[in-house]
Structure formats: C-alpha cells, structure tokens
C-alpha cells in the first residue's frame, strides 16, 4: 500500500492490523522466527508505508488452528482444532489403545485428517460417524459402564491363575467353560463375569488361584510433585496404557480430568499402590 495513511483510515489500519514486532512480542519469538512465520503465508499481511503489518483477524484464525506457538498472555492456541477435531492421542485415550494404533486406525478406516505439526487431526463428525458404524472399538468410558467392575478381562483371568491370556481363552472355549462361565464381548474383547469365574474355579481341580506375592513398591517421583501423568504411571510402574485408562474411566484410580488429559493424584495413588503391595 503506497503513500501515507492519516486520520480515520490510518486509525482503522492500526486497529485491524499489528506490526511484525508486535506479533513477535505477543508470541515471545525472535526476529528470525517471526519473519519466518510471515513468509510462510500462515496469515495475511499488508504493506503500509513500506512496512509490513499483520492482519489481526487472519492472525487469530491461524492461532486458533495450531498448537505450536502460544501467546505470552491470553488464550491458549488451537481452540478451533479442539472444538472441531480429535487428535490421534485423544482417539487413543478414548478407545484405550496406543497412539501408534490410533494412527494406523485412522488410515485403515480411511478417516479424513489434516496434519498439524506432523500430528493427525481428525474431524469430530467424521470420527463419530465411523464410530457409530462399527462395533469392534468401544470407548473406555462405555466399556467401564457396561462391565460395572464385575468382569475380568482374559489377561486378568490368566494372571489370577498364574497363566497367560491364551490359557484363559482356551478355558473359556472348553466344554466346562462354556457351561459355567458367563461372558460378554465388548469391542472385540471377551470379559468373564467374576461370579461365574469363581463357580468354574470351584468346579475343577486343574487350576488354582496364584497366591498374591507381597513386594515392596519403589515409589517414584513425578515431575509435578502433586500429580502423575498417564505416561509417568505407565513408565514407573509397568502398567499398560489401555489398562490404566480403563481403571481411570471406572474411577478405580484417584484422578482429575483436565480437558483431554488425566492427572493422577500422587498422594492417593501412592497410598493405593503401597496398600495393594502389602495386602
């Protein structure tokens, strides 16, 4: 834009645009990084008296659709992405699977997605439409509500007997198992009703419960002194992500949900962990 802008027109430009240094200070960036953003064309810019200015409306549109850059003060980035899409991590948390499995699922189900900072973002309406059209995957909250805490997964049943899930599966398929074990299938997985498991156990002599071994748990220190993250609990104490998310959804573990993330209360969880190890 050539020439000098004064009066009403100049005031309008100042209210609807900002200088690159203003944008740089807003995001806490260096000069090189701020001009890199400008030259990538992420938002609209205009020339005023030979100086580049950023159109604020265009900047805010970009800011609400990315996660990498954050204002020093003000709202969190990515508000529109959170409103309109799920990340692969969110889908993994919902379905009790790993992030890698969620990425594979997105491709196999041919779900539409965009890549934001090398991460899949899947439109919520497309995901919900796919979810309602299949029965193999079940949200952890729905699974927990359906089971009500009175069912054993095959890995859990196997551990009670000191065996693996293959032995548990063969027991379920056996003649006696089919007669006595009450099972349900949720999301492609088999669960055994706890009461029927006890009746089956009492009716045969081949398998017995494995005695609970007492052990001392080495408590670990999370980065946040008050809370564990899901990753920290799985890494510190050897839990599988899917198992932990099911326990969180059932309320078995004291935790808070902040947005899409779980924060596990350290003091209560440590007490739960040490109490179980001693019992």
Characteristic key phrases:
single chain, 279 residues, alpha+beta, Multidrug-efflux Transporter Regulator, Chain: A, Domain 2, Arc Repressor Mutant, subunit A, 4 domains, three-stranded antiparallel sheet, 16 helices, elongated, disordered N terminus
Q: Main sheet: which strands, in order across? A: 1-3-2
Number of domains: 4
Beta-strand content bin: 15-25%
The topology string of helices and strands comes to: HEHHEEHHEHHEEHHEHHHEEHEHHEEH
Largest sheet: number of strands, sense, barrel closure: 3 strands, antiparallel
How many beta-strand segments?
12
Percent helix range: 40-55%
Structural class of the secondary structure composition?
alpha+beta
Distance between the termini: 76 Å
Evaluate the radius of gyration: 27 Å
Rounded mean pLDDT is 85
Number of helices: 16
- Bulk shape: elongated
List low-confidence stretches: 1-8
